[in-house]
Amino acid sequence: MEEDNAAAALDNIVTEFHTYEDFLDSQITSLDLYYLEDEELARQLVELGYRGSGEVLKREEFETRKAAAEASRLSKRSQQK
Questions:
Q1: What is the distance between the alpha carbons of residues 10 and 4, in angstroms, rounded to a whole number?
Q2: Which PANTHER family is this protein grouped with (predicted)?
Q3: HSE (CB half, 13 Å, CA atoms) of 59?
């Protein structure tokens, strides 16, 4: 049951954000940027799981889930027609 909830949460992430960078940016605080002074470094720390307020999701997994969500959306759309 918990695995289903985790998968649903990850699916929500990929539909909420257009790009992986948007997803990473959503987990970076202004305080992070103040101390790090480098947005790319802050993104790397989130990607590695050292910073961030949510789920750690690798770029490949994000893009795979994004493609699957898009394919699902397109198949539902074609079934409606």
A1: 10
A2: CILIA- AND FLAGELLA-ASSOCIATED PROTEIN 299
A3: 7
Q: Is the dihedral of CA 14, 7, 47, 38 positive or negative?
A: positive
Token pair of 31, please? 């305080």
Q: What confidence category does residue 2 fall into, taking pLDDT thresholds of 50, 70 and 90?
A: low
Mind listing the pLDDT tens digit for each residue in 10-56? 677 888 999 999 999 999 999 999 999 999 999 999 999 887 766 78
| Residues 6, 2: Cα–Cα separation, whole Å | 6
Q: What is the pTM of this model?
A: 0.76
Which position has the token pair 């699902």? 72
Cα-Cα end-to-end distance for the chain:
34
CA distances from 12 to 32, 69, 73 (A): 25, 10, 13
How long a stretch of residues is the chain?
Answer: 81
